[in-house]
Amino acid sequence: MQALLALSRAIDRLNAFVGKYCIWLIFAATVISAANAVVRKIFNYSSNAFLEVQWYLYAWSFLIAAGYTLLQREHVRIDVLNSRLSKRTQVWIDIFGFVFMLTPVCILVLWLGVPMLISKYQSGEISGNPGGLIRWPVWVALPVGFSLLMLQGWSELIKRIAFLRGQGPDPMGRLSSQTDEQALAEALRMQAAEKDRQAASAAGTAR
């Protein structure tokens, strides 16, 4: 289990690194958009390339940050019923989702997307718009983004299995700056305290 947890931490670091720096893609798209507007107003000139490179940058930022978003637990969740269930039931629901929904979808996208990327690279396909850009660079974001998302799904799966085995902190808890060792120690302390309370309650009932 410790080897899997080490893998999980490595995946978390990878997606944290990507998430930290992909904001520069948004910044670049914003600068290009502003420059395009200024040039169009002052010099009455524009190009579809300016517009398409913005689309490319936005596509890259949203796709490659999907794994980081999952790491931060910022994807949309429907918690009307889930929040009323026990912690272990919530964890089992997440495990089911990662194994039978997230992973198969990611594999399917990669299975269909990689051949499409190769085809567009080999053909050198260019946008049909006048002055448009070559297409394959934006298609690279598809396998990269879904690979990062699938890896993060596996990392979250490992965390939840570790929690169920009593070898990891609560994966649904509040994100903090604690190290993994500190979080694990805190989780084990809380589990021990809960067991003590249950034992005391059982002893009182027996009397």
From TrEMBL:
Coiled coil: none
Transmembrane segments: 21-43, 55-71, 91-113, 133-151
Top-level lineage group: Bacteria
GO MF annotation, one: transmembrane transporter activity
Keywords, ordered alphabetically: Cell inner membrane, Cell membrane, Membrane, Transmembrane, Transmembrane helix, Transport
GO CC, alphabetical: plasma membrane
Membrane topology: Multi-pass membrane protein
Subcellular location: Cell inner membrane
PANTHER family from the UniProt entry: 2,3-DIKETO-L-GULONATE TRAP TRANSPORTER SMALL PERMEASE PROTEIN YIAM, SLL1102 PROTEIN
Family: Belongs to the TRAP transporter small permease family.
Assembly information from the UniProt record: The complex comprises the extracytoplasmic solute receptor protein and the two transmembrane proteins.
Annotated function: Part of the tripartite ATP-independent periplasmic (TRAP) transport system.
Protein's name in the database: TRAP transporter small permease protein
The organism of origin for this protein: Oryzisolibacter propanilivorax
